[in-house]
Specification:
Layout (H helix, E strand, L loop, with lengths): L4 H17 L9 E7 L2 E4 L15 E3 L5 E3 L10 H10 L5 E5 L2 H9 L9 H6 L5 E2 L8 H10 L4 E4 L3 E6 L2 H23 L8 H14 L37 H15 L2
Parallel strand pairs: 6-7
Antiparallel strand pairs: 1-2, 1-5, 2-3, 3-4, 5-8, 7-8
The structure holds zinc ion (ZN).
The site of zinc ion (ZN) has 5 residues, from loops.
């Protein structure tokens, strides 16, 4: 049975504490949302620390981000448009987390995407994490910048700002944020030690195959894309949208073709 609304509000507060306690947000930064149904979404309020929320802080909005219910003194996150764009484009997503984790944000500020294949879990869970171009907070610039990545990724860095993750449920979206930050921290530290030893293409392909066999939900750059081999296919797997969904199947040649393209982009 799906948890009731109050239980979900409590879970949002719990995840808020975790992102705050793990240095993924400072002061009142960050925001979290959960989809209840096509017309109702819960989200954290603006202007409060996500580490000190109780269920009555949580606001309810419609699919456009308009307030349905909010207790006195609370207004939905100023970044709600960014969350709603994810739900609009990804019907499989039920939770979105935005934070400023130290290492991931440092990469976002330096303009360096997380593309080096350095450890199995990061390759399997994330593949690579691209950077969505900078946009002014609270405007539609960030949703517009993130949109091209929604089809093929479940996590992006936001240039000069932070990170955004999404998934089928709140815990999974939060875990994705943890995975991004851990990957960024390892990459940062390995660079201090003279640079990470990257996996070769064969090793990456085997990890991608493991991901497929495990049937892990969500999107991943290892998945096939309909724009493969065309000018619309960016090396990172983030193709321009509008040509339909992601192709399903396991045509090995195509997989290896895509993998080659992904790997070509990893050489940066
Ligand atoms: Zn932010």
């Amino acid at each position: 049975m799906a948890p009731n609304e109050y239980e979900i509000k409590k879970q949002i507060c719990e995840i808020g504490k975790r992102i705050y306690n793990r240095n993924m947000v400072a002061a009142n930064d960050g925001n979290i949302s959960v989809k209840l149904n096509d017309k109702e979404f819960l989200c954290t309020p603006t202007g409060v620390s996500k580490g000190f929320m109780t269920p009555e802080f949580i606001c309810k909005v419609d699919e456009k981000g308009n307030v349905i219910q909010a207790n006195k003194g609370f207004k939905p996150s100023s970044e709600i448009k960014m969350h709603m764009r994810v739900y609009e484009k990804r019907s499989d997503v039920n939770a979105v987390v935005h934070a400023h984790p130290t290492f991931a944000t440092a990469f976002a500020i330096a303009g360096i995407p997380l593309t080096q294949p350095i450890m199995p879990e990061a390759v399997i869970a994330l593949g690579c994490v691209p950077i969505a171009p900078y946009g002014t907070p609270s405007t539609t610039e960030i949703p517009d910048a993130v949109e091209p990545y929604l089809e093929h990724f479940d996590a992006v860095l936001l240039e000069s700002h932070g990170a955004l993750t999404w998934s089928g449920d709140l815990l999974a979206a939060y875990h994705k944020m943890e995975s991004v930050e851990f990957y960024a921290e390892l990459l940062y530290k390995a660079r201090q030690l003279g640079g990470p030893k990257e996996f070769d293409q064969k090793t990456v392909e085997r990890l991608y195959e493991i991901r497929r066999q495990m049937g892990i939900p969500g999107r991943h750059p290892a998945d096939l894309c309909l724009n493969k081999g065309t000018a619309n296919c960016h090396n990172c797997g983030s193709c321009s949208t509008g040509n339909g969904g992601t192709a399903k199947g396991s045509d090995e040649e195509l997989v290896s073709e895509i993998t080659k393209k992904v790997l070509a982009s990893l050489g940066r």
